[in-house]
Amino acid sequence: MTTPRIAVVGAGLIGRKHADLVARHATLCAIVDPDPAAREVAHALDVPHHESLGQCLAADPPDGAVIATPNQLHVPHALACVAEGIPVLVEKPLADTGEAAARLVEAAEAAGVPVLVGHHRRHNPLIAAAKAAIDAGRLGEIVTVDTKFWLYKPDDYFAPAWRRAAGAGPVFINLIHDVDLMRHLVGEIARVTAVQSSRVRGHAVEDTAAVLMEFANGAIGTATVSDTVVAPWSWEFTSAENPAYPNVPATCYAIGGTDASLSIPDLRLYAHTGRRGWWEPMAAEALPVVPQDPLVRQILHFADVIRGVAAPLVSAREGLRTLAVVEAVRRSAATRTPQEV
């Protein structure tokens, strides 16, 4: 197999983005979505349209499938592909509950079928460079981390009722990305203590939350998230990853170690020029990186996994572990007590 044939299941905003990328960097073989508008998407890309995944699998099974359907459909659609031995890339979150995600992980591992999760930021060269520096020991022992997702979502974002309902807030939709990167860069998160508020907008869903994270390796850190703050300190504004967002020369993550600290995404590594001490001179080094679109890299990686020449960078089990942290954050915020992950 030189160029895998990939079907895209779900033709919403992110599904259309995946379809375009697959068409340009692999072989798009079908669009699957019951919405009549999806037929036009398929026609524009000159591929067959199927109203259901079962119809697609019966008519012309693909080599791989991207699952970009609503969260509650991720698991049934992925399980249908796994049953046919078809590798899948599932948009984040892996599932709407940890229990459902675990069912998929167990089925995929038992069948030996690769399941990837769309935590695409891990494919960003910025994150690869940060991880390389951390793994090389340049920061020394990691002591603490700080992450921010602060921005203002406009009022029309909340026009759909589901975005004002519990479970649709920035903890589940946005913080999950930051949690995944901290797990990737620093290590497993063992316990969380969280508080949240819906004071500003008054919706059933939170608009602001703060989390204390305790890592299994002894590091501790904080994560704050709010979609009702006018501020630039978020991955969206600072990374230049998505051209839909204006780019601001600021940072959103800080990782502190006993030898140096690293700010992200500007990749500035701060260290004393001589011996360590608060009166000693400090210099900042910019880590080198060549920017690339992580969504393109993710599709190319998925094609390699389908061909059997690469192992998943973000496996279903990785997606389950990240989801478990977010579920622990929810439990902690609801009970006002620390929660084990």
Summarize the structure.
This protein has 341 residues and is of the alpha/beta class. It has 10 helices and 15 strands.
What is the CATH class of the largest domain?
Alpha Beta
CATH A-level architecture of the largest domain:
2-Layer Sandwich
Distance between the termini: 40 Å
Would you give the CATH topology of the largest domain?
Dihydrodipicolinate Reductase, domain 2
Indicate the radius of gyration in whole angstroms: 21 Å
Strand content: 15-25%
**Strand order in the largest sheet:** 14-13-12-11-7-10-9-8-15
Taken in chain order, the helices and strands follow as EHEHEHEHEHEHEHEEEHEEEEHHE
Give the helix proportion (percent range).
25-40%
How would you portray this structure in words?
By secondary structure, this protein is an alpha/beta fold. It has two domains: 5-117, NAD(P)-binding Rossmann-like Domain (Rossmann fold, 3-Layer(aba) Sandwich); 124-291 and 324-340, Dihydrodipicolinate Reductase, domain 2, CATH 3.30.360. Helices cover 35% and strands 23% of the residues. It has helices spanning 13-25, 37-45, 53-59, 74-83, 98-111, 125-135, 170-185, 235-238, 294-307, 316-335; strands at 5-9, 27-32, 49-50, 64-67, 88-90, 115-117, 142-150, 189-197, 208-215, 220-226, 253-257, 261-264, 268-272, 282-286, 339-340. The strands form two sheets. The chain has a nine-stranded mixed beta sheet with strand order 14-13-12-11-7-10-9-8-15. α4 (74-83) packs parallel to α5 (98-111) and α5 runs antiparallel to α10. The model has no long low-confidence stretch (mean pLDDT 96).
